[in-house]
Amino acid sequence: MEIRKKQRPDIYPIADCIKCQQETESFEHLTCCLQDAEAWIKEEKRIIEETWGKLDPEEKVNCTVEAFTRAILPETLQAKDWRSKAARGIIELRYGENLMNLGFSKGKARKLLTHFLEEWLRFFQNSIW
Ligand SMILES: [Zn+2]
Predict the structure, then answer these.
(1) pTM for this prediction
(2) What 8-state DSSP symbol labels residue 90?
(3) In sequence order, what DSSP letters do the residues of 100-124 get, joined into one string?
(4) Domain residues of the chain, as ranges?
């Protein structure tokens, strides 16, 4: 897309994001456009709660939804990098380690992150992209 734009400015004259009209529209930008900021926060909260809801009752006692959220979602400052990787289907190992530190087995941590990522990608593809 970038190359075609340069070769044929007559066909691809607009490089700005259609949502914010500011940044050049790129895959990276899709994960951090300010126009989507609220939607991301709302949807990530919903997906976290839905994933946490799948835990067994005794697991919920040992791991509150707040602790679960802190284990999977990064602090605000790192969110941009986190989303850019998640959009490519990548969640870094340390998030799985965070879950294991909360007492989940490696297999369970993987299962939870896989479920979270699948839901997250569905939102990304349906509502953002
Ligand atoms: Zn934008």
Answers:
(1) 0.83
(2) -
(3) HHTT--HHHHHHHHHHHHHHHHHHI
(4) 37-128
Question: For residue 24, what pLDDT is reported?
Answer: 87
Task: Give distance in angstroms: CA of 32 to centre of ligand 1.
Answer: 7
pLDDT tens figures, 37-47: 999 999 999 99
Question: How far from 109 is each of 102, 106, 115, CA to CA, in Å?
Answer: 10, 5, 10
Q: How far is the CA of 45 from the centre of ligand 1 (A)?
A: 22
Confidence label for 11 from pLDDT (cuts 50, 70 and 90) = low
Ligand 1 centroid to residue 108 C-alpha, Å: 36
Q: In this structure, are residues 116 and 72 in contact, taking their beta carbons and an 8 Å threshold? A: yes
